[in-house]
Amino acid sequence: MAPARIEEPNLHREAAASSRSFRADELKVDVCVCGGGLSGTIAAIAAARNGVSVVLIQDRPVLGGNASSEVRLWILGATSHMFNNNRYAREGGLVDEILLENLYRNPEGNPLILDTILLEKVREEPGIRLFLNTALMGCTKDTKPGQTDRIASVQAFNSQTSTMTHVTAAQFIDCTGDGTLAFLAGAPFRVGAEQRDEFGEQFAPDAEYGHLLGHSIYFYSKDAGRPVKFVAPSYALKDVEKEIPRFKSFSTKEMGCNLWWIEHGGRMDTVHDTEDIKWELWRVVYGVWDYFKNSGRFPEAENLTLEWVGTVPGKRESRRFIGPTILKQQDIIEQRFHNDAVSHGGWSLDLHPADGVYSEIDGCTQWHAKGVYQIPFSTMVCAEVPNLLYGGRIISATHVAFASTRVMATSGCNANALGVAVGLCKKLGTPEAPLDPIQLLAKDNMATLQRDLMRFGQYIPGYKLEDKEDLIRQASSIEGSSFELSSLPADGPPKVLVRSLAQMLPLEAGAVPTFGFTVMAVQPTTLKVQLRGSQKAYNYTPEVILAEKTFELVAGSNTLDITFGDVTNPQTQYVFLCLLQNDSVAVATSKTRLSALLTVEHECDQSPPEDVGVDAFERWTPVRRPMGHNLALTVSPPIKSWDVSNIRNGVPRPTKRTNCWVPAAGARKLLTSKWDAPASVQKVVVHFDTDYDHALESVLRGHPERAIPFCVKKWRLLDLSGAEEKELFVEDGNHLSRREAVLDAAVNVTSLGVEILELQGDENVHGGIFEVRAYA
Question: How many CB atoms lie within 10 A of CB 328?
């Protein structure tokens, strides 16, 4: 018998008992997301926006995981700091939305502000119940006769409220990082690196290099304006010069994510030894700071104080769970096609020596592919537990492939797919018999998932949105003045060719225009100009020399007219008009910036050993704004790649084409869709240009802009069916890529206008629209 309770005003008393249980809450939802890092946060939001009720369990006091103020790692993915050839590769969907919102509110890169953005995004979704400080404790399997091995519920404990929460759901998404739920549910997994011969992966590491990536911990310093003494704790590393081989490269200017090389744990159990790894990282950090402050080798550190040291290590690797497909090195390097692709990656194959900070080897070995690659949905589902989805870094991949897929923006891109997928499972199933995620691998279901993802703003390389419900696709005509590239004025700063420079230009297959530009030489010299293309049309690796000319320059100004004769462009692609390195020459540039047009420089050559299965090629990368100007040039005949018809071709970013409409200079910035019979329109989706080439690092590295200059700031919808224009919708102050205009009631129109009223950039910027869709 339970002890009697005595209730009195302002007092609660209970008699002694043999034992008690924690308070228990029982919840039932469509999906339970375990883990509130960037992936779990995105999966929960995407699911909620697709009509799913969600419980999000996070064992930390804030969201974001490695991106949060507790760890402070920047969010990166396929753009890789713009240090690779993956142009226009930034992730779409919610990754894009979060990074652009962070840019707008937080161009300084303050990790605390990013915390607030992630928390706000979740709190704004009425379909999400968020449980912070709540740790997953266990799961219960369904034991009904004839049932498959499904998860029925999970149990999670909040130490702040002394409450055990039991969550019953149809679907479960594991975004815990270590795969805690998948582990408890009995899903198959791997830890460590495969041998080379298992999958034919030539980059698979040997035992000397090590089979696991370690953890990192960061610290911040600041100038106190006066001398600051530091007394190291007793556990600090004492002999930095002896213990840490790279001590000679130490700099007091490094902080935060730049200290990724303070890494440890690759020889340990990266799940169960995490606390021991953290203590060793603290030992290193305080030892390094002691070395800065008290070795006498860094007089510039006199006024510096240690402002923050991470209390949670950033974990790279632990368990990888197995699905129907295991992604491997060749999928990434060869950019293989997958029928069930739902996401994309582009980070390098980035392996770290297991000895981390104590290693004599360089802190990482990074080999890039020539372009982005697809990630299939079959790496995110579990055949043995059919209502379990793998999120974050635990997807089905080899150790080598994981070295690329593990980064946060890529994991967040996958999470877009998971959230949309559980929404589709609910839509296609019934309350009594919900569709399991693995059933989405069926051909028709997968086509629907890919369609819904692209509607959501997801980019899937090699796919385009074929949307039969889109009224813009059904329009009899699309009209609007369109930009044609015939010239760019020479009003920018001269660019000295200390490195080879290339203007990227979108050309259709066939004849090559004649180009003209002006160079200045300090002395008589020669300048070599090449026209280059890529082997694969969707790539931006200028590896194929299509034509070449050499010009004799005189000292002073030289106007060059470049005709490549009978040379043709073999495929629709971006070609590279390359001016090869000559530091005696400067080329005239332009202040004009144009959507889907940029210059790149030859940064370095990727020269891997012959036996690692990675291509050697040149890396040509852009210079960030406010630098990185286009060339001042003339083009004859003009390049007509920004036509208004692009807004319904199903690809809302540059690929082998611009896929963008830019209005003609000086004309009204209005595109008009016309129908032969009235169309009933209630929702219009517009996709603006927010420069998908920009990495938009979330923390530490600041940005000079609060909004991307190409982005449409103010726009409106117009009913142009009658003699007078009727404004249906107007938005001012936009800084995001994808916007939805939902009207109070459907309107019947025979002519619908989308008008750009103002860009975020100045008069030198010509921004455009990638996509317009309309629905009843």
Answer: 21
Chain-centre distance for alpha carbon 119: 19
Boundary-marking domain end, from 596, 624, 639 = 639
What backbone torsions phi and psi does residue 171 show, to the nearest 5 degrees? -130, 155
117 touches 101 (CB < 8 A)? yes
Q: For the purposes of burial, counting CB atoms within 10 Å of the CB of 32, is it exposed (0-12), middle (13-18) or buried (19 or more)?
A: buried
Structural Rg of the chain based on CA atoms: 28
Per-residue b or e along 285-294, where b marks 16 or more CB atoms closer than 10 Å to that residue's CB: bbbbbbbbbe
CA–CA gap between residue 484 and residue 665 (Å, rounded)? 9
Closest C-alpha to 576, from 614, 617, 627, 523:
617
- Phi, psi of 330, deg, nearest 5: -65, -30
CATH of residue 671's domain is: 2.60.120.260
DSSP designation for 202: T
Q: How many CB atoms lie within 10 A of CB 308?
A: 15
Q: In this structure, are 503 and 437 located in the same domain?
A: no
Rounded to whole angstroms, the Cα distance separating 260 from 470 reads 46
688 contacts 767 by C-beta, under 8 angstroms: yes
Report if pTM > 0.90.
Answer: yes
- The pLDDT tens digits for 9-28 are 789 899 999 999 999 999 99
Domain shared by 499 and 478, yes or no = no
Taking the C-alpha atoms of residue 576 and residue 527, their distance in angstroms, rounded to an integer, is 16
Enumerate residues 6+ apart whose C-beta is below 8 A from 234.
none
Token pair 């298992």 is at which residue?
198
Q: What is the pLDDT of residues 437-466, one digit of tens each?
A: 999 999 999 999 999 999 999 999 999 999
Beta-sheet strands, E only, within 363-488:
365-367, 373-376, 388-390, 477-479, 485-487
